[in-house]
Predict the 3D structure of the following.
Amino acid sequence: MTGKIRIAIDMDEVLADTIDKFIVVYQRDHKVDITLEQMHGKEFHELLPDKLNDSWRDYVNQKGFFRDLKVMPGSQQVVKDLCAKYDVYIVSAAMEFKNSLVDKYDWLEEHFPFIHWKNIIFCGNKIVDTHIMIDDRIRNFAGYNGRKLLFSSPHNFLVSEYERVNNWAEVADKLLRE
Ligand SMILES: [Mg+2]
């Protein structure tokens, strides 16, 4: 560790577009069309027909599911710039889906090669000693005492009690220019 301010950055729906992958696989395999507009304030699986409601778990437990996710727009350059000013840690609750571990590691190596392995934390509960956390899930803010930046994702659109960032340009505005 250095003396710099430490930031924890989430992966799914923050660096990696997991929702896009869900939309693609359900269209491909089940001919179910779900749009981002429909998801406003909801989880993706809440919009699935009843018979498919739990099937998302089968997908996320498959090897490879997390390996080809799209990168969230602007995230690579902003995270790279953050690394010059802060101690950046990628913190993902990957233990929930054990087959995701290697996929997530390889994905980071491909798209964020400037992140050293020592700065990658795959965990269960996010009990981390950082000053700032960027995450789309408010459950990860429970008990966290640092500055919380809620990264917008359709499921959290109706949440109002946290400082919000809608995209990576807004993260840059808040953390690179202040
Ligand atoms: Mg997330």
